Amino acid sequence: MNRGARAATSLWPWLLAAVVLGPALLGRGYVLTYDMVWVPDLALRPDLLGTGTALPRAVPSDAVVALLDELVPGMLLQRLVLYGALVAAALGTRRLVGRSLPAQWVAMTAAIWNPFVAERLVIGHWPVLLGYAALPWLALAAGRARRTGVVPAALPLLLVAGSLSASAGLVSALVVLVFGLRRGGGRATARLLACVVAANLPWLVAGLTHASAAVADPDGARLFGTQPEGSLPAPLAALTLGGIWNAEVVPGSRSTWLAWTSLVVLVVLAVLGRRAFLATTPDAPRWLVVGGLGLAVALVGWASPATVGWLGEQVPGLGLLRDSTRMLALLVPVEAALLAAGAAVVVGRARDAQWVVAPALVVVPVLLLPDLAWGGFGALRPVSYPASYAVVRDAVEERASTGPGGDLLVLPFTAYRAPEWNGLRSVLDPLGRHLTPDHVASDVLLVGGTEVAGEDPRGPRVLDALALPAAPERAAALASLGVRFVATDDSVRLGEEENDLLRPDVPGDPVVSSGELRVVELARPTPSSTPVATAVALGAAWTVWLGWPLGALLLTLRRRHRARGGTGG
Amino acid sequence: MGSFTAAIAALVVGAGVASATVVGVVQAQRSAGEKPNEQVEQSVLDYGTNARQ
Fold it and tell me: Which residues cross the membrane (chain A) (predicted)?
């Protein structure tokens, strides 16, 4: 490979990721879309560590962001995370396809430009994307551990990066175990298992301390299961890396015959490239196993949502599987490698026409999903928060620094908004994350008007308090639930009935009023306290989570230093 | 495969995929434009919707 070709190959994923993210990288502000809410400075609060009453869905990702945004501004950090995830996914997948240049280019393109990435970007599941990006690297590192008996120093750090949410942690753990375990593995196997557990400890322990509440609404499995896309039935949508439950984030091209064309292209290239895939992809059979598992989970979510719903209702924590297309992260590297292998075969047969055929194959994933370009045709454009957010944050932070403890309640008491200043795009309520106190949030989800019950036991009690007929009674009831501040967002347009239910008047000592936001402080809140056993368990979990990869890194550096000293180097 | 034939085949396949792209994008844009403005009717509180709801 000449120097120019090497440079171009290295630059390709950086360019492609920039074309995908487009305005998300260039504009000023934050990309706020569905579950992705970034704020200028996320305060490191106890509930981010898993002490709150809600299920630890954002453990440890929120805590990591809260720490990192002390070093890097939130706006820049969001861009780095999204861009870095796409580039890392491409570079990792490149390592799965051998030395063929066309194969490497096709693999990198397919790793970035696919429906899984498109849909998870728009729905804001950035920890899932980070987990997906880590998979090829984890597989290679775990494979090396299996063959040499030595766990690479990078593996614990990769696991931490790839396990910032429960579903990402499950996927990363599965890959490490499938690629890393061997019969009679002894100490290496034990170390691998320890790495996997350590990287997932925060959400595991936080989840165990919420076990009694961690049973999911069985209706959720039906609503969050794999869906068809246009005329493409759900199983084929999943096979082509789509099928997400939320039709609002599905690229429009997936409802056209481009989706069927992508299926045909996938099947043809996979058949043509199957032998090359087995010959060139490291641990190819293991990739087929994990890819097959990912597809199987997605299909169970479609075929039998009642089963998934029943499991989620009976077994704490299994509600995790209801958004089953998250597991397609396991299939993406397999299909990218198969496409790449097939492309290499086609290019090889084209001989003198390679100069036409190879570039055409590289851009095929782009042509089949053209509306991923430029932030999904504008779906990922950043916005600035209204000035009132900063004013309210400063005022609440100052008031909260003295006086009794207590949580923040944001009204209307719903999980999602569609602010006009965000272009009417749905987003998880950003106000609670913007402010500094621990936040009581509704985890009831509305899917097309159908309600999916939440798991937080405080949620129904808050609704009961808000339903009390007299305003002073509401304030007293909320205070008894540990609420100290009530922030009301009057910009959310609600019907009269919804308004009475979710945003009734709650009197208190005014703290601040700015724009359409106002905050009052309730009298005599009864702050909730975390049980000592929970605090100790979480403290230990976070210590191990932080200490394990650092310890592994230091040990490796010490070993290398000794080895160099031993050879006189 | 002769280089001339391969080049023609590549051009034909490429033109086919490109045409599918153009048609697909036009169809997608048309169907987005045909959707009624649901911003008034749709609840601002929804997390999302299924394809068949």
Answer: 12-31, 80-97, 117-135, 155-180, 192-216, 257-275, 287-308, 328-348, 355-377, 532-555
Phi, psi dihedral angles at A38 (to 5 degrees): -110, 140
What is the C-alpha to C-alpha distance for residues A131 and A283, in angstroms, rounded to an integer? 20
CA distance, residue B31 to nearest chain A CA (Å): 8
- Compute the distance between CA of residue A470 and CA of residue A475 in angstroms, rounded to an integer: 9
At A264 the three-state DSSP class reads helix
For testing the chain B interface, which of A106, A217, A219, A256 should be mutated: the one with the most B CBs within 10 Å? A256
Pairwise pLDDT comparison (A455 vs B1), residue with the higher score = A455
Of A251, A417, A447, which has the smallest distance from its Cβ to B48's Cβ? A447
Helix (H, G, I), strand (E, B) or coil at A241: coil
Nearest to A438 by CA among A456, A454, A418, A417: A456
Where do the domains of chain A lie? 216-336, 387-521
Instruction: Report the alpha-carbon distance of residue A546 to residue A133 in Å, rounded.
Output: 21
Nearest chain A CA: its distance from B23 CA (Å): 8
Percent of chain A clearing pLDDT 90 (strictly above): 76
Give the pair of three-digit tokens for residue A20: 């995908």
Residues 494-533 of A with CB under 8 A from B: 494, 498
| pLDDT (0 to 100) of residue B25 | 65
Query: pLDDT (tens digit, 9 = 90+) per residue, A448-469?
Result: 888 888 888 899 999 999 999 9
Complex prediction ipTM? 0.83
Here the tokens at position A304 are 């039998």
Alpha-carbon gap, residue B53 to B41, rounded angstroms: 15
pLDDT in tens, A219-256: 778 889 999 999 999 999 999 999 999 999 999 999 99
For residue B15, list chain A residues with Cβ-Cβ distance below 8 A: none
C-alpha to C-alpha distance for A22 and A381, rounded to whole angstroms: 8
Q: Is A417 left (phi over 0), alpha (psi -120 to 50) or beta?
A: beta
The string of pLDDT tens digits covering residues A507-524 is: 999 999 999 999 999 999
Adjacent-strand bridge partners of A36 = A33
φ/ψ of A40, rounded to 5, equals -60, -40
A341: nearest Cα among A115, A135, A106: A106
Confidence band of B4 (pLDDT split at 50, 70, 90): low
Name every residue whose Cβ is closer than 8 Å to that of residue A142 and which is 6 or more positions away in sequence: A155, A175, A176, A177, A178, A179, A180, A192
- Contact list in B for residue A448 (CB cut-off 8 A) is 46, 48-50, 53
Strand partners for A440 = A409
CA distance A479 to A499: 21
Cβ neighbours around A149 below 10 Å, total: 14
- pLDDT, tens digit (0-9, with 9 covering 90-100), for A31-73: 999 999 999 999 999 999 999 888 888 999 999 999 999 999 9
What percentage of residues in chain A have a pLDDT greater than 70? 96
Question: Are the C-beta atoms of A243 and A249 separated by less than 8 Å?
Answer: no
